[in-house]
Design brief:
Helices cover about 20% and strands about 35% of the residues. It has about 190 residues and is of the alpha+beta class. The relative contact order is 0.17.
Length: about 190
């Protein structure tokens, strides 16, 4: 039979458990409040280099595009370009008015991601521009009346070596340019 004494004892146990839980939560709340209200102030400066930036200039000369890339950033960089157009509309050829030519084509065996890129064989200091790259466009028979020839350029996020051979990193791809050829293309860490 349940007596009043048993009910009171049971309620006392529940009260003790509730007080213990409330006490534990109070202790934890103090630490959590300190975590959210604490602050630290540091003095000094750490130099951070801005990422490289470049600007492309395209001028038309008949059916040709004259392309130059200028380093508009604050750090030296390597650059590369790729030309896109519909294969059934036009054929493109590259030439440079200066000698020796500083624009180097990648080997078709470089792989789908790398074939077709032209690398500039010099590090561009801030404010410097590439030699002119002439892109001669020859419309094919049956080509559309109007079509686009798109030039895409990229600058190296990291110039590993400014000496010969030049080494730069485009995303995950590390590129070595030596003399008059792209010496190696490989994915680095």
């Amino acid at each position: 039979m349940i007596t009043v004494k048993k009910i009171l004892a049971s309620n006392k146990r529940m009260l003790v458990i509730a007080l213990a839980v409330a006490f534990a939560l109070t202790l934890g709340a103090g630490t959590a409040w300190a975590y959210y209200t604490d602050s630290v102030r540091s003095d000094g400066a750490v130099p951070v280099a801005a990422p490289p930036t470049t600007d492309i200039t395209e001028e038309m000369d008949g059916n040709s595009k004259l392309v130059t890339i200028t380093n508009t950033g604050e750090i030296s960089t390597l650059v590369r370009v790729k030309v896109f157009c519909a294969a059934n509309n036009a054929a493109v050829a590259f030439s440079t008015p200066t000698s020796p030519a500083r624009w180097l084509a990648t080997d078709e065996a470089a792989g789908d991601d790398e074939s077709g890129w032209l690398y500039y064989n010099a590090v561009l200091a801030p404010g410097e521009s590439t030699d002119v790259l002439r892109i001669d466009v020859t419309p094919l028979d049956g080509a559309a009346d109007e079509f686009d020839v798109v030039v895409v350029q990229q600058c190296a996020s990291k110039v590993i070596s400014r000496e010969m051979p030049l080494v730069g990193q485009f995303g995950e791809r590390e590129v070595t340019v030596q003399g008059t050829e792209v010496a190696s293309l490989f994915v680095g860490n």
